[in-house]
Amino acid sequence: MSIILSLPPEILQDIAFQLAEDIRHENVRNLRVVNHHFCRAYDPVFFHTTTIDLGLPAPFLEQLATENLKPSQFSRRLNFIQPTQIPGLVSALDGEVLPSDVYIRRYLSPALLSFETLSSLLWKIRDADPIWLHECLLETLSESHRSTLSSLQILIDGPINLAFFDKIIPLFQRLNHVRALDIRALNIAYSSGGVVKRLARSTLAVNSQHLTSLRLNSGVPESLEPDELQDAFSDVSSDYDHRMPLTHLNMSGWRLSELATVIPHFRSLRSLRITQNQPFDLWLALALEGVYLRDIAVRDVDDTLLEYLESYSGLVSFEVLCPGEGVYQLDHRALSAQFHDRILPKHHSSLEFLYFRTASDDGWYFRAEYGKALSRCKRLEEYIVGIEKTEVRGSAGNDVINSLVTAIESLPVFRSLKILVRSSGFNTTEEMNTKVKIWNSIERARQQTKKKTYLIEIMGRTPLVYGPTITSQG
Q1: HSE value, Cβ hemisphere, 13 Å, CA-based, for 166
Q2: What is residue 122's three-state secondary structure?
Q3: Comparing C-alpha atoms, which of 136, 133, 200, 211 is closest to residue 173?
Q4: Residues 6+ apart with CB under 8 A from 248
Q5: How would you classify the pairing of strands 464-466 and 455-458?
Q6: Quick one: three-class SS letters along 75-86?
Q7: Across-strand partners of 80?
Q8: Which Gene3D superfamilies does its entry note (predicted)?
Q9: CA–CA separation, 176 vs 303, rounded Å?
Q10: Residue 205 contacts residue 173 (beta carbons within 8 Å)
Q11: Nearest-angstrom CA–CA distance, 458 and 440
């Protein structure tokens, strides 16, 4: 231990961040108290994130405002939570009982100003009222941390009165150094979707020159709000020559009929996640602009996506989230076969992650003939796939499991296999019987191998887990 404690602080910090889940262990906390060298290195990790919950404002808000606390010195991320209901009265440190709005007005701005290294804000908004609260937060942060606040996450948790909220929308343009922007409506409410659209327009207008990551979840069905995507990107789309340095784009709940038209602005794009039916011209637009994605997550797959994937090499991560649940009638078994026959060979030297969700009977299940193509993906680390129940029964199931295990065993850096099992309604007995059959088939297939260094999970209501030292887990 003395050797570890003698390491330079920057190396200790690097170790601490890698072991972030363990650093709050009691023994580590005790060591931090008694060893100054250790404390100085680990404090930036201990106090990396601070939460201000206005449902419990006292006494923490006052302490931040009046004392030199560790969170003020080291926190880089602030979680700011607006509660459903703010308490009526709170007690200050000197015993004075104050109405909560008076208490918050007195200490919120000084508390925010106390943070010295803040670079990330998560803001959960439950109501547009009181306006002064949002104005205080935006005005204070824009004055004190505008140049350092590079990550902004806004969660809309409930219906918002747009007439109230429109009053503070312009204030968001003061935060004009944002590189990662995440705006989400957590509930299906039309006013929440409208807030997301307005916030997107406001923040994109002043951050498009340096924004690299954008996530927008409108919280509304994709077909109910016309032209919302065009509205959100209107300031960008009006200038065809303008190109954003955007590398990561995540869209959910939007009608994407206009997405292809803004692709020319996103020529740096490397990661795309869209959780609804993509327009047929999207993949053609990406190919025409020479935008070759490394990370793709889509609701469904069609021929145009396969043609796009076949046009280049270098895909690292690929997820199919809801095959068979889209509005189009597609032959998913044929598409799955084409992916393994035509697409995997194009990306076998780069793929690290594959996920095929099986939410319907027409899902992308693993089949015995896919094993050969999978075994060539030597950089694959994680694979999530379903096995069709009808193929688990009898010798065919053994062929499928043998092919899957044999392929996985040949991959040098593989870490995790998750097998998805669909159940019929609440028939837990049927689900468990299926998982046990898969379990037994895996055990038989692995008896001849010495490679036990990766994790296998048979997913469901009660997962079964294999690992180097794990036999089962309920």
Answers
A1: 5
A2: strand
A3: 200
A4: 212, 213, 214, 215, 269, 270, 271, 295
A5: antiparallel
A6: CCEEEEECCCCC
A7: 52, 123
A8: Ribonuclease Inhibitor (3.80.10.10)
A9: 40
A10: yes
A11: 11
**Between helices 9-18 and 36-46, what is the axis angle to 10°?**
40
Q: Cα(335)–Cα(351) distance, rounded to whole angstroms?
A: 19
Q: Which residues contact 4 (CB under 8 A, 6 or more apart)?
A: 12, 15
Per-residue pLDDT of the chain (474 residues; tens, 9 = 90+): 455 556 676 676 666 666 555 555 555 566 565 566 667 777 787 888 999 998 888 889 999 999 989 899 999 999 999 887 777 888 888 888 888 889 999 999 999 999 999 999 999 988 767 888 888 999 999 888 878 899 999 998 877 878 878 888 888 999 999 999 999 988 776 667 778 888 888 898 889 889 999 998 887 655 445 455 566 665 555 555 567 899 999 988 776 766 777 788 888 999 999 877 667 788 999 999 999 999 999 988 889 999 999 999 999 999 998 765 554 567 788 889 999 999 999 999 999 999 998 766 667 889 999 999 999 999 999 999 988 877 665 555 578 888 999 999 999 999 999 998 866 555 677 778 888 888 888 888 777 666 667 888 988 777 788 766 444 443
The amino acid at 30: N
Question: Measuring CA to CA, which residue among 21, 111, 114 is closest to residue 57?
Answer: 111
Find where tokens 């990766």 sit. Answer: 454
Structural contact between residues 155 and 189, judged by C-beta atoms closer than 8 angstroms: no
Q: What is the CA radius of gyration of the chain?
A: 26
396: phi then psi, degrees, rounded to nearest 5: -60, -40
The label of the residue with tokens 């601490």 reads 16
Scanning 357-424, the segments in alpha helix (DSSP H) are: 371-375, 389-392, 394-409
259, amino acid identity: L
164, 128 in Cβ contact below 8 A? yes
Cα–Cα dist 117/109, whole Å: 16
3-state secondary structure of 303: helix
Q: Are strands 455-458 and 416-420 parallel, antiparallel or unpaired?
A: parallel
Please tell me the number of Cα atoms within 13 Å of 447 on its side-chain side: 6
Helices 428-446, 394-409: axis angle to 10 degrees equals 50
| Residues linked to residue 385 through DSSP beta bridges, in sequence order | 419
Cβ pair 148, 184 in contact under 8 A: no
Rounded Cα–Cα distance for residues 119 and 75 (Å): 9
Q: Which helix (H) or strand (E) holds 251?
A: strand 248-252
Task: Quote the Cα angle for 406-409-411, to 5°.
Answer: 120
Cβ proximity of 308 and 283 under 8 Å: yes
Supply the DSSP symbol for 279.
P
**Which tokens hold the place of 281?**
């011209």
User: What secondary structure letter does DSSP report for 156?
Assistant: E
3-class state of residue 51 by DSSP:
strand
